[in-house]
Design brief:
Helices cover 33% and strands 32% of the residues. The chain is of the alpha+beta class.
Length: 110
């Protein structure tokens, strides 16, 4: 279930930004930016940013896994649409593509 949710977020972040309405975009990492609005989903106006010391506040109980795979930081943005549950977009900056794949492959198990 968690893997499907991750894929939904990934599709949302990759496919919808072309339909995003103008305005300022928040930069996350070197090559990524979040839209403020996309397909009727609107950003709640608050970004949550976590580093290696504060990631335990967000991923209580699993942060050690991310740290073991070179975690650098995490940006979380919440999108809301009337009558729909919110979509939480998470962008992790890892030490390398191999580290990101390590977490991804570990999370897929089970």
């Amino acid at each position: 279930m968690r893997f499907r949710f991750f894929l939904l977020i990934l599709v949302f972040l990759v496919a919808i930004p072309s339909g995003a309405k103008g305005g300022e975009k928040m930069k996350a990492g070197a090559d990524f930016s979040f839209p403020q609005e996309a397909a009727g989903w609107k950003w709640d106006g608050k970004d949550r940013v976590y580093n290696s010391r504060t990631v335990f506040d967000y991923i209580d109980g699993a942060a050690e896994l991310f740290l073991a795979y070179g975690f650098k930081d995490l940006t979380v943005r919440r999108f809301e649409k009337l009558g729909q549950p919110p979509i939480i977009a998470e962008v992790y900056e890892m030490g390398s593509p191999e580290d990101a794949y390590g977490v991804f492959s570990f999370e897929r198990q089970g």
